[in-house]
Amino acid sequence: MASANTCWSEENFSCPICLDVFNNPVTTTCGHNFCRTCITKYWDEQVQYKCPVCNKLFNTRPDLQVNTFLSELAAQFRTTVRVKEQLFVEQAEVPCDFCTGTQLKAVKSCLVCFTSYCQTHLEPHQRVARLQKHRLIEPMDRLEDRMCKKHDRLLELFCQTEQVCVCQFCTEGDHRSHPVVPLKEEYEVKTAQLGKIESEVPQMIQERKQKIEEIKDTVELSSKDADREIAIGGQVFTALIGCVEKCRDEFNQTVQEKLKSTEKQADDLIKELEQEIEDLTNRSSEVKQLSYTEDHLHFLQAFRSLKDPPPTRDWTTVEVRPPSYSGTLRRSLDQLEETLNMEMKKLREAELKSVQQYEVDVTLDPDTASSQLILSEDGKQVHDGGVVKTLLDNPKRFTRKIYVLTRQSFSSGRFYFEVQVKDKTSWYLGVVRESIDRIGRIKGTPETGYWTLYFDNDGLFFRDDPAVRLPLRAELQKVGVFVDYDEGLLSFYDVEARVHIYSATGCTFREPLYPFLCPGLHNGGTNSAPLILSPVNQTD
Length: 540
Fold this sequence. Notes:
Blueprint: H1 2-5, E1 25-27, E2 33-35, H2 36-44, E3 49-50, E4 57-58, E5 65-66, H3 68-85, E6 108-110, E7 115-117, H4 123-127, H5 129-132, E8 136-137, E9 157-159, E10 164-166, E11 180-182, H6 183-291, H7 296-305, H8 328-356, E12 373-375, E13 381-384, E14 404-405, E15 414-420, E16 427-433, E17 450-456, E18 459-462, E19 468-470, E20 478-484, E21 489-494, E22 499-504, E23 513-518, E24 531-534
Antiparallel strand pairs: 1-2, 1-5, 3-4, 6-7, 6-8, 9-10, 9-11, 12-13, 13-24, 14-23, 15-20, 15-24, 16-17, 16-23, 17-18, 18-19, 20-21, 21-22
Helix pairs in contact: 6-8
């Protein structure tokens, strides 16, 4: 049997319907064999029951019987011959869509049937005249996805305008004027782009990991800063609470001592009065008893021995005055205010030191300076020279106002700088946004991009609409300017007095900010002193 088997080919064991090796073969009454599943499905789709091979008609659907002998031979053939000789599907290869058992590797794909065939199942396309007209291509999977939905043709080209895959007919219609290239050419371009993206992605990932670490470090630093501030604040408030409690206790003690003094005075007077009352009561009793005596001799003798009246005080002018508490509470509060002022002074000094650590080195930009301003060579001083110079046109220059900006600008974070204003009768300084009008006579307020402090004979003001008048304790020598861009905070400080002057909060900073100086008009020499960008001196 084995010797005979070696001479048989696959055709001897192939079902005429599926063209594959028999699977559970059955025999019809006309003597032809089929897979039970194949012949059953075939008859389910027919109006008449006939043999697919010889076309013999059956009056009724035949009762099929398993061909045991053929089934055994087919099984033996499958295990001894076909396993060795057939090419099976391996990874990345297209399988035959027609194989019902073990799928074989497809050798062609049909663009009409949308099906891929192994060599065995491809045979009808090579034999049947109608099937020979079908277009066969190299094996491809997901054939339906590769076909143009509009023209039912293979997507072989790529439209670079709309970035979509198209067929040949598409290039003659909607994509007629668009540049198209073969899929392979665009694939190579896109593969190169993908390689670049692939190389960039790890770097982007690393950059984001570093950013995460930076954020974590910032949060950790912020946490430490918060703990430190809470600790300092706790110490200050504890000291203030202790001071308030001490003043309260001293005030209560003072009031109580005044009350006790009054009560003691009253007790002493009452005791003295009670003693006089007792003495007078006793004398009254003696006088009353003597008044009842009718014996003249006894009366005169007794009257002679009657005690002298006890000494008494003239009580008409004696009074107990309630204590006066006027000024007691005020004096206690004055003492408390003095203590609070000392604590506030310490806090102001600490606050100024904390913002001075954000000092930036800035220099004046001559390209922005008005034509009558004179700048020092180092870019640190500016004053009004009183004479308009002829300068080259520059879109950065102020033309109607004697203003000047620094070369440096700031778009994030915190920065601080100091300006000496000593011996000046008027000046104007702060920060401005980059897009301010440098030609017109725009009023300099936060709405127009100016956050500035102004000084003249009328006093000190923060320029707003309306302007904010500020207290001026003494002549200003040096002004500190602090900006927290991200928090929208701007603060001014009297550096010499180490006093906070004014803060603008909730500012909207969306552009680069430039430090801004205006030395004021020369005014006949009375305001000739320069504004000076000064280095920070922490020991002031």
